[in-house]
Amino acid sequence: MTAAVRVWIAPAELSPDEEARCRRVLDAGERARAAALASMPDRRRFTLAHAALRMLAGRELGAPPEALAWTSGRHGKPVLTAPRAGLHTNLSHSNGFIAVAVSHARPVGVDVQLLVPGLDTAGISARFFPPGEAAYVAAGGDAGVRADRFARLWVRKEAVVKAAGGRLWPNLSIAVHPGDLVDCAEPAGWHRVAEITAPAGYRAAVALAGEAPYAVDVSDWPGVTGG
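Request: output the structure for the sequence above.
Response:
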């Protein structure tokens, strides 16, 4: 049976009622982390991202979102605590959008990134990416193509590293192009990565630990509901 991963990408926009609902499902530590952020947009994005993770994981498990708890697992990656440790989760947020991924089968990582105009993508790629990927970015016909190629590689690397639970910088040199099987450097291990549809101006990818193929279900955001 083919494993499946579910992904939701949603705008980080909240009405006052939705924001209040999101705050209510967070735990004390998450509320404190949100409150410590300097800007209101950052606080709202953090609140929605972590509440969405709780709500969507709760839907998968048939559990109240506020009842879920995460702890630091192997390599420091947050993992759900027993009795719900069988569900793997991950989240990402970039500017105006958040992404949440869940998998019942294997550790999962997801990344969504805004295309950044004016970024020296060829220079950054030459410094951090493998030579073949740096050449691929530099060969883009114009700045827009180079930005697209860079972002597609970046989200693939981020997704793999987040599935593995490692750190990004030691893994920027891993090759993620052109195939979908990636050998993570730290911690070592094979992962399978897939690009997913993202909003205009963004790129996104998801990865699962292991070499086996899987199905990706990108679902509509169900919204913030409840009292």
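DSSP finds six helices and ten strands in the chain.
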